[in-house]
């Protein structure tokens, strides 16, 4: 039973990693760029939501605070691409990597300047509640995180499969030039993808802050783990991003239980290294060769 509870906790954490990794993959598919500030966007969403929801601050209802935080991150990420990232379009990818790393440092500074550097947790309606299924008892927040992630994945699938904007995003990700000649506003579509990645980061941040405390510096760690999840699953695969996040989330608690602490800390990255050696394109990569 203890093993099952550990597994469920790992799946919940893996869902959070998977949501951040989905942001990595969405942006990569749309622009072939890697946003290393994705983890810091998550922390920004968590602190913004805590400022709106916690009873000693704005004291808004949980869902309203989540909606405002998600909308704010969507607008921020959209403007980040439209006003800044778009200016370096066509430059070597290293330029975008360095720029997003710098944005991450700036976001951590801003978060610390506004909310301080102490860990913050989020007041939620699920605090202290447990879900009991027979002899199994798990924190309600873990069940909520898993349910929210499943719902978001279904919504994403429906969005990309059934809506004109979703189809336009897929077309842009496959061939931007062809999409442009078909009348698709590629630049605006890419900015909208950044907005979606911002919403994913905000939801992940709110879920994690409701599960445990977060601090400004945690964005770098979460970003690296989520990037590892995206690489493990395949950087161009949305299902792979979620699967990679789940693998890392499950490995962490079991490695922490059965391995020395210094070994357990590198277990996710050891898995990433193993995948890169055996299957460099990722476990669920959609192999596609570009024709020049």
Describe the structure.
The chain is mainly alpha-helical. The chain has one domain. Helix content is 72%, strand content 3%. The chain is built from twelve helices and two strands; from the N terminus they run H-H-H-H-E-E-H-H-H-H-H-H-H-H. The protein has helices at residues 2-31, 38-53, 62-83, 93-115, 140-162, 164-174, 176-181, 186-211, 218-233, 238-258, 261-264, 267-278, and strands at residues 130-133, 136-139. Strand 1 (130-133) and strand 2 form a beta hairpin. The protein is globular and about 60 Å long.
Total beta strand runs: 2
Question: pLDDT average, as an integer?
Answer: 87
Radius of gyration: 19 Å
User: Could you say which structural class the secondary elements and strand pairing correspond to?
Assistant: mainly alpha
What's the domain count? 1
Record the strand order, biggest sheet: 1-2
Distance between the termini: 55 Å
State the order of secondary-structure elements, H for helix, E for strand. Answer: HHHHEEHHHHHHHH
| Helix share, percent | over 70%
Estimate the global geometry from the Cα principal axes: globular
